[in-house]
Amino acid sequence: MTKTPEHTSKTDRASAPARMTRRGFGILGGAALVGGAVFASRWYNISAQAGVDGTLSTPDAHVAALSGDVLLIDIRRPDEWQRTGVGEGAVPLDMRRDDFTDALLARTDGRTDTAVALICARGVRSRGLTRRLTGAGFTNIIDVPEGMLGSGAGPGWLKRGLPVVAWAPA
Which of 43, 75, 92, 117 qualifies as a cystine partner to 142, CB 3.0-4.6 A? Predict the structure, then answer.
């Protein structure tokens, strides 16, 4: 006797391979879309704004760094500095260094109230490091949310045509 659906036992169904239904595909696709959008918004820093409390636009950061009003720190990696150069007036200081906070304190002569502006590629790392340094006792940390490559806050240092300095390992 051939088994028809009404004659299929529960054990046969339990051992059958699972099959995705249209509803399952829809839910999975929707979850992937939402997850991708959240990832992209964070990676491109879409919701960032420059020029609001605790932030500077890239042109303002450039002017402030050249005038000595802020210490502009480029917190990206050496391979990123090599690719794009370092913004004129900025000090390259890799945020992944174990002694990052000590190296920053050396640049500020041990003062935690010095105005320090942080720039990265798209403002994501600088935003996180701003919170971390504020938690470590720094009182005047400023984010440059546009970054070197641009974000939701603006086109970024490079697209604005701001000057860069070639970087070479010391």
Answer: 117
